[in-house]
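Example record

One chain of 167 residues, shown exactly as stored in the release files.
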Amino acid sequence: MLGIFVDINNELADIAKEAKMLADSVRIYEEAANVGPVWTWLAVQGLASGVEKIYTGCERVMAMIASDIDGARIDHSEGWHVSLLKRMAHPFPSVRDTVISDECFNALERLRSFRHRERNSYGLTLDPGIVLERAVETGSAFEKFRSEVNEFAQKFSGPDNNGSWKP
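Predicted structure tokens for this chain:
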């Protein structure tokens, strides 16, 4: 296995631990509904943070692919998060096919959009229902992402004589 894919597997393993913790937290949140406003605030903050951490981990994996496979880092200017996600959903000419499907793109786009809101809002303005919905969606979105990244990794044998990655 190539070094970049060892690093990606390590990252995916860490994200999977976070996803398991988020899934367990969703169950606890649902069991303890209506405990009180402070509990709700704490729980909503925790779930929102879990979604944010998992999406950010997926984004790190995508950035690794952009840098090491595509050989073209994403410029961190306005809108770079969307650009990175779109890049993974499209082939990179003469280098690779798509990394993620349209279905995976759409699931991750919902998480990316939520992450933006979570990072730029006070906890009291987050809708607990939407936070719970995104927290529940996160597990399947991550599993789809992990599966597609692993499938993508299987296509690569290593760099050619020019240092370019070859399928």
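Notes: The two ends are 13 Å apart (CA to CA).
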